[in-house]
Amino acid sequence: MKNLMYLAGILLAINSFGQVREMKDDQVQMPCLNMVSSDYPEQNIDDFLRKNVNYPEISVERRIQGTEVIQFTVTPKGRLTKFKVLNSLSPEIDKELYRVLRMTSGKWNPGILEGKPVEMRQEVSINFFIDPIQFIIADAKDYLEKGNKLMYSKNKPRKAIYFYDKGIRLLPNDETLLAARGLCKFKLGDKNGANRDWDRLMVLAKRNGTSIEIENMAITPDNSKEYDEMLRVLME
After folding, report:
1. Fold of the 133-234 domain
2. Pairwise CA distance, residues 47 & 151, whole Å
3. Predicted TM-score (pTM) above 0.85
């Protein structure tokens, strides 16, 4: 195992679901890692991941890179359950993230809702980059442009989805890529897949405190019946 050759940033992204979304900020306390000791002096999950996550050697050799996103639930007792990889780079990287996160299970302060500990979902995103970040962004943009060309100029959505997937592998939280892939999935008849991408957009917007202008989310042909139908289904 090798240390991360280039860890462009570790982001702790907190997403609250269901009734928590409707509560005022002073009624909700999000889970946080409480693992400070002589063995683990790190102050938060970001620091803990930076120190303990390794870039699997086989993934480095194969030049597998991108952003791994993993979701989990913090129980009222501070344990981690219900792990779910939202953006997988390789089985080896999945395994490494599971390994490190499980080291923290039972050592979290649980989320608090109206004064009581409750289950809350969280996620972490970690960049496993060999190339500099500017190259990663440029590659993702190139994949987006290739996908859009195949989708709209050549009407080949089955080929376009390949490039959208490659772009999202690098930048899974990019709203334009998610919107473009959602449109492509919808055109291919994969409404569930389109909805998953749309739900992800909603999560990102809430997390970032931004709004989404859906008519500007992706390059689409004017008066596109598929686009209008997708918006109708996704907003139901």
Report:
1. 1.25.40
2. 41
3. no
